[in-house]
Amino acid sequence: MVFKCDVVSRLLSVRFLAPLLTAVLLLFSGQSLAAAATEECRDLFANRRLTLIVPYTPGGGYDTYARLFATVFAERTGTRVVVRNITGAGGMIGIRTIAESNPDNLVLGIINPIILLDSKVVGLSLPDYDAFAYLGAVITDTAIAVSVSEADLATTISMGSVVGAVDTELIRTQLAAEALGWPIRIVRGYAGSSDRWLALLRGEIDALFGTTESMGNRVRNSPETKALLSLTEGPNSEFPEIPYLSGAGSVVDIGTRELAPSEREARIHLAYLAAKLSVKPRAIAVTAAVNSLSHGCLVEAVEDTLFSEALSQASNTQALQFEPTTAAEVNRIVAEVNELMVENSQLLQTTFRELQSGR
């Protein structure tokens, strides 16, 4: 009897009655719960300013995507969108600004969540990946290796290439090289992607790893260079003719068939890990401290923008690769890579220590 009284008491409380009363009022007014939620979302964006932070310099790939997204988002929501480039420390300052923004303000950013996972291995002070809520992505990119036109995969492997890399690409690059049996010397310290590209053209480095989108555009505009290898588990959608690193029929699969089973298995695993770490969502993110209503409204508005014909056409006009990804898929990818890095933490730490020691 005491139990029943307790249940009745709880049901009569404001906490439990409020949602029920709201639903009843909405039904009598002829308004659905979904419509009410949509109206609340409209109120969230009405007469507001949204800030979209780009952690990198103006004119680059992230900046171009962000400005196209901002224009279409503003048109579809009626919100005034301001794009801010907050640069410095390889993107760390801008990324940290997004994570630490006031959750009551409309502050978004465009980032690659995978570098937040990489940063823990290489010792960079970036926020944890779960400091953000991911609302979708303009593209979930892959990576390729680029070299000068005189080189091919076989000769480049045999000559012990010099590779340009940044800190957040070190592990992936080394794993790919070990999977291939490719002795490399990684050169770091370039100011940015443009400096690394010029170093490649000058012959200071033999190969350069980067995203398919950015490296692909450079290759198409530089006849003296070519895409050398795709760091994927199958053929690259943009460069289907070049060898790919992992999976059935890959260069590692074919090239290790004469090795002892244990060595072949180890090399295939390294290739798989390198390919998984090479996935790069260019994600629209907000601080994880955002409240649930704002989060739901932002996911709805961001996905509506990402999958709109207007943004697709704008990307085509700019000759940008554009493959919108839902919030759920971005979060799945990030969780998968995080789990993989946790499972292989000892291997990744050993690889990084060897890189630091110059081996």
Helix content: 40-55%
How much strand? 15-25%
β-strand number: 10
Q: Low-confidence spans: pLDDT under 50, at least 5 residues?
A: 1-37
CATH fold call of the largest domain: D-Maltodextrin-Binding Protein, domain 2
Explain this structure.
The protein is α/β, with parallel strands linked by helices and 359 residues long. It folds into three domains: 30 residues, no CATH class; 152 residues, 3-Layer(aba) Sandwich (D-Maltodextrin-Binding Protein, domain 2), CATH 3.40.190.150; 136 residues, D-Maltodextrin-Binding Protein, domain 2 (3-Layer(aba) Sandwich). The strands form two sheets. It has a five-stranded mixed beta sheet with strand order 2-1-3-10-4, sandwiched between helices. The chain is globular.
At a glance:
By secondary structure, the protein is α/β, with parallel strands linked by helices. It has helices at residues 2-11, 14-29, 33-45, 61-77, 92-99, 113-122, 153-158, 170-180, 193-202, 212-220, 251-255, 261-277, 292-306, 309-317, 327-343, 345-356; strands at 49-54, 80-85, 107-111, 132-141, 143-148, 162-164, 185-187, 207-211, 225-230, 280-287.
Q: How would the blueprint of this fold be written?
A:
Layout: H1 2-11, H2 14-29, H3 33-45, E1 49-54, H4 61-77, E2 80-85, H5 92-99, E3 107-111, H6 113-122, E4 132-141, E5 143-148, H7 153-158, E6 162-164, H8 170-180, E7 185-187, H9 193-202, E8 207-211, H10 212-220, E9 225-230, H11 251-255, H12 261-277, E10 280-287, H13 292-306, H14 309-317, H15 327-343, H16 345-356
Parallel strand pairs: 1-2, 1-3, 6-7, 6-8
Antiparallel strand pairs: 3-10, 4-10, 5-8, 5-9
Helix pairs in contact: 3-13, 4-13, 4-14, 8-12, 8-16
